[in-house]
Input
Amino acid sequence: MSAVAAAPGRTSASSRAGSPLALLAWAFERLTPLLPLVWLALFFLGPLAFTIIYAFANATFGGVELGFTLTNFQQALSGFYLHIFLHTIVFAAMGTAGAFVIGMPLAYVLGRKAGRYKTVLAVAVLIPFWTSFLLRTLSWETLLAAGGPIQAVLNFLHLHSGQLGWIDTNKAVAIGLIYGYLPLMVIPLFVAFDRVPAEILEASKDLGASRLRTFLNVTLPMVRPGVFTAILLTFVPMTGEFVVPALLGGNKGVLMGGLIYSQYLGAADYPLGSAMAVLVMLLIGMVLIAFSRLTKGFDEVGAPA
Amino acid sequence: MTTLTKGTRAGHPDLTGAAQPGQSAATDVPAVRLTHITKRYGELLALDDISLTISTGEFLSILGPSGSGKTTTMRMIGGFERPDSGTVEIAGEDVGYLPPYRRDVNTVFQSYALFPHMTVEDNVAYGLKMKGVGKQERRARAAEMLELVQLAGHAGRRPAQLSGGMKQRVALARALVNHPSVLLLDEPLGALDRKLREHMQVELRRIQAAVGITFVYVTHDQEEALSMSDRIVVMRNGRIEQIGSTNEVYDQPATLWVSDFVGSSSHIGGSIRAADSGTFLMDTDLAPIRAGWAASGLGVGDRAVAVIRPEHLEVTPGSGDALSENAINARVEEVLNMGSQAKLVAKTPGGLELVATVSRMGLDPAIRAGEPVRMRFDAEAVRLYSPELEAGAGAPSEQEAVTA
Output
């Protein structure tokens, strides 16, 4: 009743709001900000929720029976599966380290020493990144194959003799991982090196530091945020990588990504696959937390004074 | 401001300054000596045969517009640029091919270039650490320097937490703590607001007097150079136009361009009619002008430009004989309030603009916009220059990219 009583005072306002066009405009204005949320819910939160629910569900033959059990996690953290999980962490860490060892000097040269060739060289690093990852990984199969070009080079340099048996082993997976993620490592490092103001390095030399000491005392600390970004950008997707092990690793080079894939699409054991996926997510979450702790004081480094 | 006249005029081969009063006796060796320095960047001639001697303990400003080569000259001394030809000596030692970290010179950079990942104290102590000075002594000396630049109590802060003026002081302390033979300052006050800049000018003089280190100060601000320096080097297009005390550069500019770049002045063109007993008589479209000085090479019959500083124009209301010597009839365009003084802009019937500064106290009320005035000046206040020098004035702007 009170709503009715209040109505006469608002007639003009409500009549305006009542027209269909105005209503549409109102809805548009209010609801469009929700669209990204809907998108996120549909394509990220939804699948994530299903994965988490499945991880605690019972597997039936080719199906899922909802419930609450830790069997999937027990299974994922035991025997062969645990071995692959740990193997994946070690591999991602090693692959990241390998990409870092190659990427750091590359980024330093690009960012600080390339001069006017800087842009050209940076693009040269990026171009392979824009071609199909699958194709690039497949090409390594040819390169590393027994009797292939890399074997010829290694034989010529007396670093290896006879047939190269790397395909379908961890070696090939490591090479493929490092190669595939090198641009992700180089670009943040390149940006970090590039952004160190020349005057700050001159100041260091002016104050008596040689090139090496300037690099250690000034350049390195100033690119630290870029180093952490690069490591994160490389390590996180490496833990879920499944194309490289599938193409170059054969039976011996299986990583977590491939294992989850086979649980979903091969064995149709959705709960076990989901539990593994949740474990990988937890791992990544832990890494992210650790990194955000480590990088806490970096705001001051980011912007040059 | 001291009125040292130890410099010699441009063009003289011997530029060694006489000893400054209060300076130690053992300073026959100059702090810096540049001899015939030339530097090219591709097509661009950045420095064209620069020779310059800087005495120990001196406050020397290098003044010039963008692209004049002043920053390049400074970077030569600092070791950031190497000369194509010529020698750089610091305290008598040829350092032309030594890197910056092997030279007894420190720099205050235009952008301050503080290390953002270090505290103020670590920034200041950096040079000492590189020299291998122990931690205790480093801390003590850094604290002492921070005291000198009035930043005691800020030792633990990061550069990002400091204001522009504070960063500037840290940069200064970081350079001075090493007690270099020469301190280079590259437009260090450029980023500060006017009030702070004026305060820092006084501060820099105080600090220089306290530490007794040779300061080489690069600036494009003529007021700054005039108020702070013992001597000024005026540069243009990679050459030195004039070296002299602040008074010399202002009162006796060596070229028409220097007279225009340092301070303001009125220019009146004409041709020289007579030269007798130390004065020169010039015919102009206005009154004849008698001048007490003329550039060497100027003679009877030559075209010339008379230069008069605004403070030398005496302004009275009304008009008078249009043909009497050193008195010009004009009409006031505007009177600008400059605080304690007023800037008076007047135009002659021929459209020539004359600028005078007058005291605002007791300014004749008849002197106001639209009213006729008579502007008188002494022959001693007039200097004649060859007008040819004006051609090509103003630095080419493409040089800015290189040296700015």
